[in-house]
Structure formats: C-alpha cells, structure tokens
Amino acid sequence: MNSIDTFTDLVSHSDNIVFFGGAGVSTESGIPDFRSVDGLYNQTYQYPPETILSHSFYQNNPEEFYRFYRDKMLCLDAKPNMAHIKLAALEKAGKLKAVVTQNIDGLHQKAGSKNVLELHGSVHRNYCQHCHHFFDAEYILHSIGVPKCDACGGPIKPDVVLYEEGLDNTVIEQALYYISHADMLIIGGTSLVVYPAAGLIRYYNGHKLVLINKSSTDLDGSADLVIRGPIGKVFGHIKL
C-alpha cells in the first residue's frame, strides 16, 4: 500500500479527525506563503514582512503597514482548492470535527467548513479601535491610507494576530480540546516553526498522526505517515 492509499484508508476508518494547517494549504489557491522560495519573506520591501506585520510597526507606521497589508494580505479573489473542499466535505460527513488554521484568508469557511478555529485571526474581521464597529475586508481594501471608522472616525485594525501579540486564549483552549480528543490528526501545509501555534500539536494522544508538506519538518520522525507533495492534490484522492 502506497502512502496515498494508506492516508485514504486512515481517513475512511476515522470519525474524529482534526486538521491543523498552515500557509501551504492556501498556496494552491494563489496565496503566497511566507517561507518558500517565492514566499513573502523572500521578496524585497523597504522593511522585512515580519517587521511590517508586527504590533509595534502597526502602531508607529500605520500607513506603511496598510500599504503592504492591502497589497499582499488581502487576496479576496482567491478560491478554495481541493484541500479546503474535501475538508468541508469531511466535516459535513461527520468525520472531521475541527479545522485549526494558522491562515487568515477565510478560505476554509468559503469552502463550507463550519468549525474553523483561526489561531491568527481573519482579514475578514476588522474593528474600529474606538467604538468597535465592524468592517469587512472589502472596506479595508478600498479605503485609502489608514482606514477610518465611518461612525466615529477612529482607526480600524484588522482582527489578525500580529507579531508581538498574543493568541486568543479561547481559541487556544478550543484547539487543545479538539486536538487532544482526536483519533486522527492531519497536519498540512506548515513548516511547524511558528510558535505557540505549532506547539499545540504535542497534545495529540492518538496513533494516526499524518504530515502532508512539500518540505521536511522537525516532526517528521514522530509522525505515523509523512507525505511529500501539494496538499490539494493529496486530498483529491479522498473519496466520500
């Protein structure tokens, strides 16, 4: 039995699956990741992306932050790929209980997933820092300079976790619950180097840990199955 057949067999015999994903899940939808050859970290800007996407940079240089944010982080025309679609189908079939994602693009929800735990927030939620009025991503995309609240004039901040900011405790607790109770944990499209998010997977207690990634990770030796390749292509083999 090859690795793909082993993977689909594990899925067919599991009914409490949790998926933990990173940027590589969305690259097949045309959204660049951060650390690959063509990723954001390997492109040249006046400041490195990790500096621009920090809380202190947002506070001190909001106009430059939003120039980068609109240009590189708001990929609103992106469509779900086969990984997003199959995960939504697995949830609808009652086999998958939660998607835990480091992504902020909302593609899991666009594909139909309901129980999505967004560790790093979402570009689709934006709030006035004064009156907390809600704004969608389109409002941010079509604004100029630092987006302002149309109700009180206050500055608007995306509901995304920037560098130097902590994760939401409620989301972490939910992720820990689902991961620790899963009978199968699928990790896909992540290099597992971003903490504390990557540390959540050590709470998995089962024996069906599957890693799907284009490159190696520090967890490869602990996984029950490792598959090298595009995650959408791998998930395309799942039959429901």
Q: Kindly identify the CATH topology of the largest domain.
A: Rossmann fold
Q: Count the strands?
A: 9
Sheet/helix structural class: alpha/beta
Helix content: 25-40%
Could you tell me the strand content as a percent range?
Answer: 15-25%
Rg is 18 Å
Question: How many discrete domains?
Answer: 2
Amino- and carboxy-terminal Cα gap: 20 Å
Q: Could you describe the largest sheet, including whether it forms a barrel? A: 6 strands, parallel
What is the architecture of the largest domain at the second tier of CATH? 3-Layer(aba) Sandwich
Can you tell me about this structure?
By secondary structure, the chain is α/β, with parallel strands linked by helices. The chain contains 9 helices and 9 strands. The protein has helices spanning 3-12, 49-52, 55-60, 62-73, 82-92, 107-111, 137-141, 169-181, 231-235, and strands at 17-21, 96-101, 116-118, 121-128, 134-135, 156-160, 184-188, 209-213, 225-228. The strands form 2 sheets. Strands 3-2-1-7-8-9 form a 6-stranded parallel sheet, sandwiched between helices. Strand 2, helix 6 and strand 3 form a beta-alpha-beta unit.
